[in-house]
Amino acid sequence: MVKQSIFALLFLAACNVSPAPQSTGGLPFDGGAGSSCERAVAVVTSDYKSTNIVVSSLDGVTQSQSFVSSGAAKPGLALALSGDVDVPFAAPGSKRVVILDRYGTNVITWMDLGTARVIAQLPIGTGFQSNPHDYLDVDARRAYVSRYGTNPSPGAQSFDQGGDLLVLDTEKFAITGRIPMPEDVPGIQPCPDAMAWLRGQVVVSLGRWSADFARTGDGRLVAVAPATNRIVWTVDIPGLQACGRLAVSPSGDLAAVACSSKLNMTTHKFDPKGSDIVLYDTTVLPPKEIRRFDLGKKLDVGLQPTITFAAEDRILALSYGGNGKVGDAAFALNTTTGEVVQLAEAPKAYVLGGMHCAPGCGDVCLLGDAQRNRLRRWHVTAERGFEPLEDAVLDTLIGLPPRSIGGL
Questions:
Q1: Does the structure show a pLDDT above 80 at 9?
Q2: 162-169, strands of its sheet edge to edge
Q3: For 249, which of 86, 101, 254, 348 could close a Cys bridge (C-beta 3.0–4.6 Å)?
Q4: Does the global pTM surpass 0.85?
Q5: Where would one find the signal peptide in this protein (predicted)?
């Protein structure tokens, strides 16, 4: 689904639908010994009222059409899935399926990929709309959850401040601590969003919005050392706003972040001056900015905040419709030359979203297309770039459109 909460606010009236087909089951895996490749992907399909999770192979071929859904009765699923659901972008180290039920529900669900059995559920609202945005296993017993929301009246119960990374015990399924995110501008909340690994540290992007989304600060990346649960560095992104997850190249030597800029809620247009992709040298920490590509102004768009490396020098990126283009667009960016190649264009805005690339593990990139209700696919090679493959149909049982993709 669309990652920026400002858009998710349009769909807060999430509710369950009539009973759906029973789960189509899990997938047996041998544990992937000796392989650094992910085993599969979880695709969130949703109409923002109900949700179905599809499990597909790395090349987009469906393996389980309805791993779990809002309407399916599932033993152990005491809190049914709403319509505002996401999955972690990075594959959980525990090999479990992790589901984040966001605004209005505020629950983390762990499931077994092999059996589709619910292992546990943990409410993390702690008395307010915490709006969990991402999840990352940091070791065999702990995980971080980024809570986008900030509690305007904390102090009623433990860990109820928000604007933080919650520390979870993933054996007891309990909250054990929190790491508050920094914010120095009055009236601006940190809005911790997407997380990524970088050389043993966890980097979280801060959305930095006011409570009414009328004001925003420039982008900010914050790194946390899992060994101490302490912030070890901060990198600001001057002049750009609403920045997403730090995408790391296959070698780990480069990283990039995309920023959308502030959306004008009257004109429904983005400010291209505040939108771009920034490339970093990550052989040093904190990362050193190498280059900006001036893409917002060149393309007259607001870039979507989620990007991913398809190869060491190729990035798959998206733009929102509503500015220079009526609909969303997908494009490839060559980080060496700055060349931009358009890959796909949709007839409407807010229909392309959710991506996954598997460099060195089949080299296929996937992109959710809610308008077509398909996964668009490309095979990436050094010689020919992004070669289009046939679109993949996700499921024929429920038929909800794809919104988000996470590794498994």
A1: no
A2: 132-137, 142-150, 162-169, 174-180
A3: 254
A4: yes
A5: 1-19
